[in-house]
Amino acid sequence: MIDVYSWATPNGHKVHIMLEECGLPYTAHAIDIGAGDQFTPEFLKISPNNKIPAIVDPDGPDGQPISLFESGAILIYLAGKTGRFLGNTDREKYDVLQWVMFQMGGLGPMLGQAHHFRLYAPEQIEYAVNRYSNEAKRLYQVMDKQLGQHAYLAGDEYTIADIASFPWTRSHKNQGIDLADYPNVQRWFDAINARPAVQRGVAVLADKRKPLHDDKAKELLFGSSQYAKR
Question: How confident is the model at residue 217 (pLDDT cuts 50, 70, 90)?
Answer without folding.
Answer: low
